[in-house]
From TrEMBL:
Keywords: Cell membrane, Disulfide bond, Immunoglobulin domain, Kinase, Membrane, Repeat, Serine/threonine-protein kinase, Transferase. The lineage of its organism: Eukaryota, Metazoa, Chordata, Craniata, Vertebrata. This is Alpha-protein kinase 2. It comes from Pardalotus punctatus. One of its GO terms (cellular component) is basolateral plasma membrane. It is found in: Basolateral cell membrane.
């Protein structure tokens, strides 16, 4: 069920956010840490829709803090404290899971977040499979710009590792005959719009 999956994803992300807070809060000057609110699953056997979720209502301006795709540049993400700390949280999770998992769609009111997603590599991570496309992890790696909070946590810049990987892959593709390089690129192009459409709902 989609509802059960949503519950599972948000509460998994919430556990990562608690670990992040435990590491970030004691740091001098870090300040308040974003929190992912809990989401509860209710079973209603007599109802047509037997499962529903309940969560705290967030009152105030609802903001999307993390990128859904490369074209969406949100100044609130770059300029607000909550937005920067959300990007640092993404970087922290990415590093903690060795690039296997990323918390995406960070959105909410101030430091309280809800309706988040998780992207994992195709094989999943420690038995957990995310509900977002793997391409989100690639986008994050390419687009993330470290901020002062990343520095406070001592996170490694993704720029250098990403460039090294790009060089390695471009060298590999030069050795391949043209036809197989073209074949490799086609499925990726075809996949992107579909991922994007399904995530808009």
């Amino acid at each position: 069920s989609v509802v059960i999956q949503e519950c599972y994803v948000q509460n998994t992300a919430r556990e990562y956010a608690k670990l992040y807070a435990a590491e970030a809060e004691p740091l001098e000057g870090f300040g308040e840490v974003p929190e992912i609110i809990p989401i509860f699953l209710i079973h209603r056997p007599a109802n047509n829709i037997p499962y529903a979720t309940v969560e705290e209502e967030l009152v105030g301006e609802f903001v999307k803090y993390s990128v859904k795709d490369g074209k969406e540049v949100n100044f609130l993400r770059r300029d607000s404290e909550a937005g920067q700390k959300c990007c640092t949280f993404q970087h922290w999770v990415y590093e903690k899971t060795n690039g296997n998992l990323l918390v995406t769609d960070l959105q909410g009111v101030g430091m309280k977040l809800t309706d988040v997603g998780i992207a994992t590599l195709a094989k999943g991570y420690k038995g957990f499979k995310g509900n977002c496309s793997f391409s989100f992890i690639e986008q994050f790696r390419a687009l993330h710009q470290c901020n002062e909070y990343c520095e406070m946590l001592g996170l490694k810049s993704l720029r250098t590792t990403h460039q090294k990987q790009r060089k390695a892959t471009s060298m590999k593709s030069k050795n391949l005959p043209n036809s197989s390089t073209v074949k490799k690129m086609v499925p990726k192009k075809a996949r992107e719009p579909r991922d994007f459409i399904s995530l808009e709902h």
